[in-house]
Amino acid sequence: MADQKNVSRRQFVTTAISAAALSTLPARYVLAGAPRNTPAEGQVPLTDSPGWKDQGIENLTKSPHAKLRDIPVRAVTITTGFWSPRRDINVSKSIPSMHDLLESNGRMNNFRRLVGKSNAPQIGPVFADSDIYKWTEAVGFVLQSGDRPQLRATTEKMIDEVIAVQEPDGYLNTYYQDDRKSLRMLTQTQTTGHELYNIGHMLQGAIAYYRATGDRKLLDAGIRFVDDFLMPNYGPAPKKPIVSGHPEIEMGLIELYRITGDKRQLDLAGYILGGDSRLQLPERRTIYMFSGTPFTARTKMEGHAVRAMYACCGATDYYMETGDDSYWKTLNLLWNDMTTTKMYVTGGVGSRSDGEAFGDAYELPNFRAYGESCAAIGNMMWNWRMLALTGDAKFTDVMERALYNGINSGMSLDGTLYCYRNPLAFDPSTGDKIRNPWYDVTCCPPNLERTFGSLPGYMYSTSADGVYVHFFDNSELDWRLENGVGLKIAQKTNYPWDGDVEIKVTPAQASEFTVYARIPGWTDRAQVAVNRETISGAKPGQYLAIRRRWSPGDTIQMKFEVVPQAIEANPRVADDTGRIAIQRGPLIYCLEEIDQPSGVSLSDVAINPGRRPADQFQPEFRNDLLGGMVVLHHSGAVYERPASDKILYGRYDGAQSKTRRVPLTFIPYYAWANRQATSMQVWNLLQT
Ligand SMILES: [Zn+2]
Fold first, then answer.
1. Concatenated DSSP letters for 241-298?
2. I need a labelling partner for 118 at 20 to 30 A (CA). Which of 46, 78, 196, 565 fits?
3. In angstroms, what is the span from residue 78 Cα to ligand 1's centroid?
4. 47 pLDDT exceeds 90?
5. Helix, coil or strand: residue 418
6. At 340, is the secondary structure helix, strand, or coil?
7. Ligand 1 mean position to 448 CA, how many Å?
8. In whole angstroms, what is the distance from residue 461 CA to residue 604 CA?
């Protein structure tokens, strides 16, 4: 204790208890001095295969129902291109500044308090611990792309402070230790208290950190919670019931199972996904939580969007391990419901701020859109799992839509400000401050950081017969086929600004396998050649299977037509009636007031895409603007309607309304509100 006289008696007693607790932990968990990834005496050896260094975002190596296997994050180096500024700033600015904010907002003092090292009261919401774990996961992914001793030292100090408060029975949660111990794991606490949500994030953070460094310390603490506290006491009768108040533990348990091989962890996830009928929870609660009733009985997307996405991730993971067909049926039903009636054109989900929830079918308001950054990330994570199951490019298309738009908008270009909501229209006069460095509910910032940190791991997968190319950016893969043949792939491209991608395939020795090259669903024309010889069969929205005997240096040339497109919504989307959105490549474009001639109000402009939108919107690469981007110029119309404070309704007089041409400039949606938050809209009035 640094300052004895400031330590209360209660805290002193807590400290003494914690010190005693640590010294009485079972021998198998004593890790001090153990070399990395080497079990200490009595410690549970991990049975994971491949070893920690070779595991991907998910370790699907032994998942019997996965068609594709993740490659390790470290196998891909993303070089200069679209994502590198984002990833650099994530490491140099976002992760360090978020660390400082987590500290200054008391998130670590919550841990220190319990061992008498802080006098600060418990601060933040019930899920405050998860902010630390998500940040740790972001660091874990970053360290998989290269060691950073200082960042690693900072993180290890935090990990030591986290595990110092773990109780002898494995329990760990700063909110329900000490004063609130009696509330622990009560049904009411499980539905709203996020205890298992926190542990799910702890497991994910611990696993990413383990895969970066081989360091088991946090992972072992997670195993202690699961094996010593959770499994002996909670589960099917006669144990006490579990309800997943905010799904997340399901994914954590299954990824843990993929490391330990302990099937009880998988079974526990299955039990949680099934819901426990002993609890008799009100229907409005099970809808909101997207849990508490059998996952396989669900028929539509509803309730809290992030909860629904994480539940779907867990259920897909469960299906990849078990092959239980009722899950497959439900997952498809939910995916179709979401993508045909409840997803924004940006890949964002969650229409309502009330309950941060999915709305009814086609309820997709623009100004009021919630589109939480976490929900778009959850959408991408779920589709990644569906893709691994099937190899179907329709899932990759949704991932790309979310990643380049509804996720990428969530972090400012300088890496220090974050959106919680990602609306599709914005009016600053409402007083809404859209980008902020910190939220008391700060789920989104570290979620964005872990996503950008993990990007290399999403670019490729392997399958029994070859390799899948999912995403395009300048990059180098150094990995191997599933038959063990070494494989390097180098991509050269300006994607998404243009659609030319060159992919150099270099197996360690000439061998026959299939390269599944993704043809994005948004393009109308795609040409593919190998060593300049045209390959037929490229279809948008599919992987083109190129099977041949590949020799080192063979090169695939892909050319996707990238032109401005006018997008219309299903007529049932009332908010988009008479409006269109502009898309170019994977990017959704928006009008931001700051780019338009002064005095032009976005509510009065209309655009005319003509028969060939490609002719009506002129692309220009602007190196000087917002990190470099293609803007679109368009000659639109502005309706001059003199505003009056006096009347709300008046007679429409066509003769008096005047229309004039106005030059409009569109920017990619992800970049909006990076200068100042001015009016913005994605769906624009159609000029008739
Ligand atoms: Zn969030």
1. P---SSS-HHHHHHHHHHHH--HHHHHHHHHHHH--GGG---HHHHHHHT-SS-GGG-
2. 196
3. 26
4. no
5. strand
6. helix
7. 9
8. 47
pLDDT computed for residue 36 by the predictor? 42
The rounded distance, in Å, linking the Cα atoms of 276 and 312 is 18
pLDDT for 644 equals 73
Å from CA of 348 to ligand 1 middle: 12
pLDDT in tens, 223-239: 999 999 999 999 999 99
Q: Which two tokens stand for residue 58?
A: 């998910």
CA of 306 to the centre of ligand 1 (A): 8
Q: What is the mean pLDDT of residues 379-384?
A: 98
* CA dihedral angle for residue 497, residue 84, residue 248, residue 192, rounded to 10 degrees: -90
Based on its alpha-carbon atoms, the radius of gyration of the chain, rounded to whole angstroms, reads 26
Q: Could you report how far apart the first and last alpha carbons of the chain are, in Å?
A: 73
Taking the centre of ligand 1 as the mean of its atom positions, its distance from the CA of residue 338, in whole angstroms, is 19
Whose structure tokens read 């319990």?
114
Distance in Å, CA 443 to ligand 1 centroid:
4
**3-state SS class at 565:** strand
Calculate how far, in angstroms, residue 435's C-alpha sits from the geometric centre of ligand 1. 13
Compute, in angstroms, the gap from residue 487 CA to the centroid of ligand 1.
37
Which of 225, 224, 218 has the alpha carbon at shortest distance from 195?
Answer: 225
Cα 458 to ligand 1 centre (Å)? 21
Query: How many angstroms separate the alpha carbon of residue 154 from the centre of ligand 1?
Result: 24
Compute the distance from residue 444 Cα to the ligand 1 centre, in Å: 4
Separation of 103 CA from ligand 1 center, angstroms? 19
Q: Helices in 116-148 by DSSP H: which ranges?
A: 128-144
- The percent of residues in the chain predicted with pLDDT above 70, rounded, is 93
pLDDT digits (tens, 9 = 90+) for 499-554: 999 999 999 999 999 999 999 999 999 999 999 999 999 999 999 999 999 999 99
Cα-to-centroid distance, 544 and ligand 1 (Å)? 36
- The alpha carbon of residue 355 and the mean position of all alpha carbons in its chain are separated, in whole angstroms, by 20
Q: How far is the CA of 138 from the centre of ligand 1 (A)?
A: 15
pLDDT (0 to 100) of residue 187: 96
Q: Are 621 and 630 in contact (CB under 8 A)?
A: yes
| Ligand 1 center to 33 CA (angstroms) | 38
Half-sphere exposure of 573 (CA within 13 A, CB side): 22
Model confidence pLDDT, tens digit, residues 617-670 = 999 999 999 999 999 999 999 988 776 777 888 887 776 678 899 999 999 999
pLDDT-derived band at 7, boundaries 50, 70, 90: very low
Distance 409 CA to ligand 1 centre (A): 13
Task: Output the pLDDT for position 13.
Answer: 40
pLDDT digits (tens, 9 = 90+) for 385-401: 999 999 999 999 999 99
pTM over 0.70: yes
Whole-number Å distance, alpha carbon 646 to ligand 1 midpoint, is 42
Tell me how far the alpha carbon of residue 375 lies from the centroid of ligand 1, in angstroms: 7
Helical residues (DSSP H) of 353-487, grouped into ranges: 373-390, 393-401, 444-454
Helix (H, G, I), strand (E, B) or coil at 163: helix
Average pLDDT over residues 345-359: 96
Residue-averaged pLDDT of the chain: 93
Segment 140-164 shows an average pLDDT of 98
Question: Ligand 1 centre and the CA of 590: distance in Å?
Answer: 23
Ligand 1 centroid to Cα of residue 162, in Å, is: 22
pLDDT in tens, 84-115: 999 999 999 999 999 999 999 999 999 999 99
| Centroid of ligand 1 to alpha carbon of 482 (angstroms) | 36
Q: Closest Cα partner for 83 from 517, 505, 472?
A: 472
Contacts of 460 (CB under 8 A, 6+ apart): 71, 75, 76, 467, 468, 469, 470, 477, 479, 489
Cα(410) to centroid of ligand 1, in Å?
A: 10
